[in-house]
Amino acid sequence: MTSQGFGTDRATPPGLLQTADRALLVLLGFDRNRHEWGVTEVAAEFGWDKSIAQRVLATLAHRGFLVGDSSTRRYRIGPAAMQLGRIWDRSGSLRVMVEPLLAELSALSRASALLAVPDNFHMRCVAAVDGPTGPLRYYPLVGELYPAHAGATSKAYFAFISDEERVRLFRGRPMARFTDRTVVEADELEEQFQQTRQQDYCFTVGEYDAGVATLAVPLRLHGEIFGSVSLGGAEEVLGEPTSNLSALRDTAEQIERRLTGPLLQKIPAKRRR
């Protein structure tokens, strides 16, 4: 089980459905180290009777959130979970949740602030707030794709994927040169990735857009690399990169907490009749 996040508190709060909460706890129990559950494991993990564990797993499998293997009697994540993931990705919920945090960062730094997630050989901007000095583009930043090899927004993510994945992505592949500062040599790129991993941030100037400086940090969820949070603007606006680094890291941590922990909501008391 993960040690933090939505599945940390296993007690069902008063006023909520215990049966539904139990099913969700099982789903939240999946992580990179646990790809499948068995009835006995579920019962032991949560302190339930085996009959309860069996019914919870069977119900999730009935609705497609789990897939059972009749030969091993174990369960893995099912296609219904993928369907919800796609809906979440297209719903704009992520943008709504993080934009207030990006707005605070933008106002503090006087630069544009954005959150980007991987999209094949690019990073896709999913949320952005223009800086008070003006927008970086004459069109909305949300939806824009940033090439994996150019600019801090991308490098702050791709520096933290596995070595094998970086070899697959960056070796033997032609890379476009967008400005005279764009790095297109794989060995030089790898040196920059190593530096980014050591300092846990990336700062570039003019690699994708001439005259635009970008400061970015990795965004991690439960310790896994998820995307990047970055500031972009004219070099004179960002100034010394480390002057905004603390605020940028703080914003990334706030976003992580917002995306991995329950939103605290008060449950209204029942009205007296």
UniProtKB/TrEMBL annotation:
Protein origin, superkingdom: Bacteria
InterPro entries, per the entry: GAF-like_dom_sf, HTH_MetabolicPath_Reg, Tscrpt_reg_IclR_C, Tscrpt_reg_IclR_N, WH-like_DNA-bd_sf, WH_DNA-bd_sf
UniProt cross-references to Pfam families, sorted A to Z: HTH_IclR (PF09339), IclR_C (PF01614)
SUPFAM superfamilies: GAF domain-like, Winged helix' DNA-binding domain
Record carries keyword Methyltransferase: no
HTH iclR-type domain boundaries: 17-107
SMART domains: HTH_ICLR
UniProt keyword terms in alphabetical order: DNA-binding, Transcription, Transcription regulation
PANTHER family: HELIX-TURN-HELIX TRANSCRIPTIONAL REGULATOR, ICLR FAMILY (PTHR30136), HTH-TYPE TRANSCRIPTIONAL REPRESSOR ALLR (PTHR30136:SF24)
Protein name: IclR family transcriptional regulator
Species whose genome carries this gene: Saxibacter everestensis
Lineage of source species: Bacteria, Bacillati, Actinomycetota, Actinomycetes, Micrococcales
